[in-house]
Amino acid sequence: MKKDNLKVDHVTASVIQGALENIAVEMGYKLMRMSYSSIIRESEDFGAALVDSEGRGLAESAQSTPLQSGPIPGYVRGVLRILAERGESIEPGDVIMHNDAYAGASHGPDVGFIVPVFHNDSLIAFATTTAHHLDIGALTPGSCGIVDAIDAYAEGLQFKAIKVYEKGQKVTPVWHILHDNIRVSDLVVGDMEAQIAAARFGAEQLGELIDRYGRTTFDAACDAVMNYAERLMRQAIAALPNGRYSATTYIDGYLDDPNPARRELPLVVTINIKDDEMLVDLTGTTPQVSDRPINMPLEGTVDIAIWLTVRSVLLDTETHGHIPVNDGLVRPIKIVAPEGCLANPVFPAPTIARFCPGNQLADTVMKALAEVAPQQVSAGIGNLRVIAFSGLKDSTHWVHMEIFEGSYGGRHGKDGMDAVDTLYANTRNNPIEDIESHLPLRVSRYELREDVCGAGEWRGGFGSIREFEYLSDGAAAVEGEGHHFSPWGFRGGDDGGVASLNLARVDGEIQEMPSKVPHTTLNAGDRFVCVGPAGGGYGDPFQRDPTRVLMDVKDGLVSRQSAERDYGVAITKELILDDSATATLRQTHSGK
Predict the structure, then answer these.
(1) Calpha distance 353→291 (Å, rounded)
(2) Which of 327, 418, 554, 566 places its Cα 20 to 30 Å from the Cα of 301?
(3) 482 with 501: CB under 8 angstroms?
C-alpha cells in the first residue's frame, strides 16, 4: 500500500517513534532477565527489534549488540520470502523460528523468534528477538570456535522459517527435535522460550500502540520518521566531497594451514561518494573459503558491518544527539560484493565463524572513511576472540562461551578505549564471580596488557590479558583474529600490538596457538593465557602532551623507556617530567 501522501504532525511522529524505541528496549531487558545462559544475561549477546510488514526496520533495542538487532529486518525478509515460496501464510498466534544465514540471519547460532502483529485482521508488523545460543548441534560442543566446519550442514541445526507455535498452539515435535539435538538443551531451550516471551510482549505493546493512534496515523508516523532518518544520512553523506576512497586490511585466516588460499586474506573496501549517496564496493576481497566457516553472509553480517560503521562515523551521537535507527538510515547506502567472495559466499559455504572477519571488515570501512573524514574515525581496532569452553560429566555437557575484548585505536582528541568489544560487537564480559560459581573454570588473571599500544598524539587502547584454568578435564575451541596483522596507525601514529594465545599444559609445556583452534582436549590444570591486541595510534607520538605520557607512566601503563623512545618524553626515576631533556629529545626527533 502506498502511504507517501499520508500526513502526521512532527510531535505525534516523535512520540510514536519514542514509544517504538521504548518497546524494543523493554523487550531486550525482559529477555536478559528471563535468560538462563550468561551469554545473554551477562554478555548481552542478543537483539530485539520491531519491523513492519514489508521487512523495514522501525526500532531496535539500543542496549543490545548491533550485530544482533541490526540484522533483524533481514530475518523478517528472509522468512517472508521462504514462506511465500512454500505457499504458507502467517496467522495470529504464530511464532516463527529462523536462523538461515543465507536468508537474513547473521549466522546459525543467532536464532530469531518472530511474532506477527495484526490489527483488524491485517498483518501490520513483527516483534522479533535474536540471541546467540551456547550450542546449536554442530560437530563439536559450543557455537563459536567451530573453525573447521566444511559446509553449512556441519555447523548445526538449520531453521528456515519454522513455526514453533501455529495459531497459538505449540508445535510439539519441533521442541522435541530441539531438546534431542542440542547440547545443554536445558539452557538453550530455556533461552529460546525467554526470547518468545519477550517477542510476545513486544507484539502486545505494539498492538496497543496501534490501537491508541489508529492504523493511518501509525503508518504515517513510521514513514515520517524513516524519511527523517534518511534525510539525516543523506545530509551527512552530502557534506563529504565526491570521490573514490579505498582501503585494504588483512585477516589471519588459518595461519597454520599450508594452503595459501586459507591464510593472510585481503578485505578490500572502495567507497564511492556522489552527492548524497554512497556506494560501498567490496570488489577485490578474497574469494570465499568454501570449506572453512570464516565466510560472511552478505545480508546479516556484511551489511551490518558497513551500515554500523558509516552511521557511527557520520552520525555519531556526541555530535548529532539521538538518531532514530530504522530503515531510512540505510537507504542512501548501496553495497556491491561479488558473488563467491568472502563477503558474499555461495551456499553451502560455512559461515559460523564470521564474527571476527566481519569486525575486520568494519575496520576496513573505517580505514576507507579515514581518507574523507579523518577527524571522525579511530585508528585501527584490536579485534576480538571467542573461546568455547566445554566438558562432559556423567553424559551431560557443560558449555560456556567467553568473548575476549579487543581495543580501539586513537581518535582525534581522544585516546583509544582499553579492553572493550569493538565496532559491531558491543557485548559485555562475564563477571568472574558468575563464571567461577557455575563452571569448572578459574579465572586466575585479568588485567590490562601494559606497555603495548600504538603510540600517537592520541594513543591506541590497551588490550587485556586473561588466564583461564580448567578445574576438571574438558575441551575448548577458539575463534580469533589479529595474531599476524597489526592494527593500523593513522596520521603518523604507530601500529598497535598483535594478539597472542598460549596453552600452558599442566605438565609445564607451553604451546603457542594460532588465532583459530579447532576443538582441543584439555586436562585439569591446563591454562589458556589470552593476550589481547592493542589499538593503533592517531597522530605523531612526539606531539602528545608530555603530561599525558607522564600520567600513563604513573599509572603503570607505559614504561619510562617507552615514553622516551616512542614519545620523546623524559621522566626521572622519581616519576617527574624532565622538561629540558624532553625538549632536547623532541628537537632531535624533529630534525631527523
Answers:
(1) 12
(2) 418
(3) no
* Tally of residues, the chain: 592
In 3D space, the residue among 336, 268, 302 whose CA is nearest the CA of residue 424 turns out to be: 302
Inform me whether the pLDDT recorded for 4 exceeds 50. Answer: no
- pLDDT tens digits, one per residue of 66-122: 999 999 999 999 999 999 999 999 999 999 999 999 999 999 999 999 999 999 999
Domain ranges of the chain: 10-226, 378-540, 546-590
pLDDT in tens, 191-207: 999 999 999 999 999 99
Neighbours of 365 (CB within 10 A): 26
Please tell me what DSSP assigns to residue 99: -
Q: Distance between CA 25 and CA 41 in Å, rounded?
A: 15
pLDDT of residue 509: 96
Q: What is the pLDDT of residues 376-419, one digit of tens each?
A: 999 999 999 999 999 998 889 999 999 999 999 999 999 999 99
Residue with cell 502483529: 117
Name the nearest CA neighbour of 46 among 69, 23, 25, 24: 69
Whole-angstrom CA distances from 200 to 151, 458, 559 are: 34, 46, 55
Q: Rounded to 5 degrees, what are φ and ψ at 122?
A: -105, 135
Q: What are phi and psi of 577, to 5 degrees?
A: -70, 125
Q: What are phi and psi of 245, to 5 degrees?
A: -130, 125
Asked whether the beta carbons of 270 and 281 are under 8 A apart, the reply is: yes
Which pLDDT belongs to residue 592? 64
Contact 453, 497 (CB under 8 A): yes
* Block residue for cell numbers 573514490: 244
CA dist 406 and 445 (Å) reads 16
Q: Cα dihedral sign for 408, 480, 76, 178?
A: negative
Phi, psi of 51, deg, nearest 5: -135, 140
Residue 531: exposure state from Cβ atoms within 10 A (0-12, 13-18, ≥19) = buried
Decide: helix, strand or coil at residue 18.
helix
* Residue-wise DSSP of 230-261: HHHHHHHHHTSPSEEEEEEEEEEE-TT-S-GG
d(CA 50, CA 41): 21
d(CA 43, CA 275): 40
